[in-house]
Amino acid sequence: MNSAAENLCLSLLSNCRTLRNLKQIHAFVYKSGLETDPLISAKILLISAVQISDAIDYARRLFIHNPNPDVFMYNTLIRGESESDSPNNSVSSFARMLRESYSPPDSFSFAFALKAAANLRCLKTGFQLHCQAMVRGLDTHLFVGTTLVSMYGECGFVVFARKVFDEMNEPNVVAWNAIITAYFRGNDLSGADRLFGLIPCRDLTTWNVMLAGHTKAGDLERAKGLFLRMPSRDDVSWSTMIVGFARNGYFDEALRVFRELVGSGNRSNEVSLTGVLSACAQAGAFEFGKILHAFIEKMGFAWISSVNNALLDTYSKCGNVLMARLVFERMPGKKSIVSWTSMIAGLAMQGYGEEAIKLFHKMEESGTRPDEITFISILYACSHAGLLERGHEIFSKMTGIYNIEPTIEHYGCMVDLYGRAG
């Protein structure tokens, strides 16, 4: 064993943040003859499955090529897939573990698979996993029990969630937070409040769960009272209140809390900014959006892609295409598909069909591949501008060149286009 090479690989992996870097390190691992090292293999799988957001496919390929994956490796893949855009793959990996692995699933295996069922909102899968856990005597594990509470809550079965919770021997604060969240999911605000009063030990997450539940339900007075009583606050607390006020149309209150956040010395974050900008976009609050834009420029958030996209969307939906275009043109680095699509949609909504088509072609020239949502926006632009030939050409390109299967939204745009053309 080349310990110097192994230590170097582990050091490189500890600082790995992108899939590109991971592939480079992985190539070095092969070159160093360490591809069978169990510690390095497990670390590479963990990073690709869990720590890098766009690397789950790479993690899956790594796993498939491992002849004898152990419980840790199965759990890592199941966990990563449960948090991905396709959590159904996590359930499939768990089923494969039951069929093929020499090592039986443990409490972590069940917890990660249950999280996938929760993300899928699939009660049938969650119930089957619950039965499997009971057969193996793992349903009494605190981690599994807490995840069961969350799963039943996400699926809308608060009664089942409460039954699991009541059968716990000594639920910790995480379990309490899970059952309170389940009550909010079931729109039982008074039940959530009662549990909040019973909880023996609250943490910051408990308070934030209460804030989120009441703001989403529109009970802003209760949320405000909780916010004032909080022993401490973090970014989530501030963001929840700002976004809660803004989404419910109380923009003066949202701005007041935002200014209080700035004045408190706490730094606002990406979530608070994108959330409140999204609320401005939905409500058409142009003036509030301008105030936030100035703050974004002043505090150095203008380089963050998600903030720029939210700002662009706000100006577009408020009808100010000029400002939206300015934000778009000043975006640093390579523009994402979200940025291109947001700008095309903004032009389409305001009736600038020809401009939207020009921007669409410019996007293609940049090497950015349009997706289903991009085509909905550009077909909408063609429809509302009466550009029949352009719309037909773009629809043909969508299916013929980009191999995108049309959805009902795409067909709806085409029907509208032909209808307007007579």
Automatic annotation (TrEMBL):
UniProt record, GO biological process: RNA modification
Keywords linked to the UniProt accession: Repeat
Pfam family, one: PPR_2
GO terms, molecular function: RNA binding
PPR repeats: 70-104, 203-233, 234-268, 336-370
The protein, known as: Pentatricopeptide repeat-containing protein At1g74630-like
